[in-house]
């Protein structure tokens, strides 16, 4: 499954040179994952479980700047029993700015637990 989230680059997300601070790519990636889940018919808060980011990596290739509109493509990379990894491609137009890989873990009472079957089915499309 693939979905798209977009937003204008806001002034507060940039340094004095109008270039986006690195940490905002992670914020956009997380917002895209939440939008992806909603598009699947399962808002993040309605899974009945807590979701935690276990790991995230960024591979930067080009700057987003103030005045740009960023678009984030979200797609499933890997589905495990208690975790899944999403690949989130942040771009301006056709130009890729950053690729984020985020691994989310299902948690109940502070312990990793298997994703419910309906969640696995939705994520795997």
The number of distinct helices, counting runs of at least 4 residues, comes to: 2
Terminal Cα span? 6 Å
DSSP strand tally: 6
* CATH fold field value: Thiol Ester Dehydrase, Chain A
How many domains? The number is: 1
Radius of gyration, in angstroms, nearest whole number = 15 Å
* CATH C-level label: Alpha Beta
Q: Could you give me the name of the CATH homologous superfamily? A: Hotdog Thioesterase
Percentage beta strand = 35-45%
Main sheet characteristics: 6 strands, antiparallel
CATH architecture assignment: Roll
Mean pLDDT: 91
Query: By helix and strand content, what is the structural category?
Result: alpha+beta
Order of helices and strands: EHEEEEEH
Helix content: 10-25%
Give the low-pLDDT segments. Answer: none
Backbone shape: elongated
Quick summary of this structure?
With 125 residues, this protein is α+β, with helices and mostly antiparallel strands.
List keywords for this structure.
125 residues; alpha+beta; Thiol Ester Dehydrase, Chain A; six-stranded antiparallel β-sheet; 2 helices; 44% strand; elongated
Outline the secondary-structure elements.
Blueprint: E1 2-8, H1 23-39, E2 50-60, E3 69-79, E4 83-92, E5 95-108, E6 111-112, H2 117-124
Antiparallel strand pairs: 1-3, 2-5, 3-4, 4-5, 5-6
């Amino acid at each position: 499954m693939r979905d798209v989230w977009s937003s204008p680059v806001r002034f507060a997300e940039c340094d004095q040179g109008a270039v986006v601070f690195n940490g905002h790519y992670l914020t956009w990636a997380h917002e895209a994952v939440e939008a992806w889940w909603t598009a699947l018919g399962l808002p993040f808060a309605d899974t009945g479980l807590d979701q935690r980011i276990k790991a995230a990596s960024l591979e930067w290739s080009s700057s987003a700047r103030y005045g740009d509109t960023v678009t984030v493509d979200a797609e499933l990379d890997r589905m495990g029993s208690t975790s899944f990894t999403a690949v989130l491609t942040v771009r301006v137009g056709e130009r890729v700015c950053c690729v984020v890989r985020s691994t989310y873990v299902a948690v109940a009472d502070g312990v990793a637990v298997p994703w419910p079957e309906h969640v696995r089915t939705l994520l795997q499309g």
